[in-house]
Amino acid sequence: MHQWDHIDRVMGVGSIEQLQSITSDYARALGFQHHGYAMKLLQPISHASSDYFFYQDFQNEWAASYLSLSRPEVEQNDPRILQARAGLPAAAWNCNGRTSYSPPRGSHHHIAVRARKLVQRAGEFGLRSGITVPCFSPGLKWAFMTFTHDHVLDPREMLPTIVSSVYFVSCLQASIDRLMRPGAALPSLSPRELEVLRWCAVGKTSWEISIILCISERTVNFHIARATRKLQVRGRQAACARAVALGLIIL
Question: I want to staple 143 with a disulfide (CB 3.0 to 4.6 A). Which of 39, 48, 103, 152 is the partner?
């Protein structure tokens, strides 16, 4: 099964249990051995007392670390959480402390320092390389997904998996919202914003969309930026994924 087929599956998922199974299948399709997802809500889910949700399939003591992620002292120091809250992009890493993205010194540099320590510690538990994808959605305090390898890879070797993984995780987050927080009001996008997003979702660049719609490339980017803000996500990929998952656009 192609990795994009897993994205189609996650969009139509009917339960959290199915979502976990699909995530495992997706991770294996990309060559990863394990994965972990965690999210903290701004407010508790109406039918539950907790504002924290996670699932993972690690087979050692690393799994236990997910139980503590919602504690305030952990939230203030865990680099995956800090990465998500700061709006930093997805990154590949290995247990030697190498990453595909390092914030400039003076700009979230402390997150990079803590991230290097965390991935080196992860290596002690057999998590020797992987990618971490922050999630963004209305009502979230923070969320992230991590996919890991049991062997050491250069972060540059994992860069091709980041693009599809960002899209997959954006769709997954939208499905989690639909399953766990039903009834939320849909964002109101203008016809032009929906039109532009629809073309983005099928892979057209801003320049190509400007030619198709006979508008300037700057106007295309303006509509994408407005739609992204209304959907409360970061980046056009996440905006497209969320719009599709919410049924605002149909491919």
Answer: 39
